[in-house]
Amino acid sequence: APAHPTTTGTAKRKAYKLVAIGTSTGGPVALQRVLTQLPANFPAPLVLIQHMPAAFTKAFAERLDKLCKISVKEAEDGDVLRPGLALLAPGGKQMMVDSRGTVKILPGDERLNYKPCVDITFGSAAKSYGDKVLSVVLTGMGADGREGARLLKQVGSTVWAQDEASCVIYGMPMAIVKAELADAIYSLDDIGRHLVEACL
């Protein structure tokens, strides 16, 4: 029988179909730091969930688009995921992805604290893409992302967390680490490089 591949090579061979990044407090700077390191030919689509009010996400996406080599836009209902495009969840709404590679934007549910909510997007990614998701939880208050990350882990996807030293608020990543869901913990400055290595 052929030798089993070593674990070091599994990330590359997995061929991620989606990179999902969730963040809150400190997120705008953190997302800029990560996304500006990605090349224009980045081979996976990205979805970004940043806790932010409705009036701000469009301008934030436009700003990132100017700064990054990849394309960034505020997600609209029916947008198609494609390599080298990052779709930012619109403030005040919820963003889900389906297995056809289409984004669904839903009205924000008043019962949920976060609009957009990382758990909702991560959960839909787990359902639609199984083990082909690379998710990253960056700086932020609270624990949004933990339950979504749990669903992603259950189907074999990968979860990374930002390390405490580089976080503005070590809340969301800490929730991931404490729940033992993190496959890797990286400093903010290294996450972009690791995304490129894992996906290219």
UniProtKB/TrEMBL annotation:
Swiss-Prot/TrEMBL catalytic activity: [protein]-L-glutamate 5-O-methyl ester + H2O = L-glutamyl-[protein] + methanol + H(+)
Q: Which SUPFAM superfamilies match?
A: Methylesterase CheB, C-terminal domain
Task: Kindly state a single biological-process term from the GO annotations of this entry.
Answer: chemotaxis
Q: What is its EC number?
A: 3.1.1.61
Show the GO cellular component annotation of the record.
cytoplasm
**Organism annotation:** Pseudomonas syringae pv. actinidiae ICMP 18807
The CheB-type methylesterase domain covers 5-197
Q: Which Pfam families match?
A: CheB_methylest
UniProt keywords, alphabetically: Chemotaxis, Cytoplasm, Hydrolase, Methyltransferase, Phosphoprotein, Transferase
The record's InterPro entries line, in alphabetical order, gives: CheB_C, Sig_transdc_resp-reg_Me-estase
Q: Can you tell me which residues form the catalytic site?
A: 24, 51, 144
Protein's name according to its UniProt entry: protein-glutamate methylesterase
UniProt cross-references to Gene3D superfamilies, sorted A to Z? Methylesterase CheB, C-terminal domain
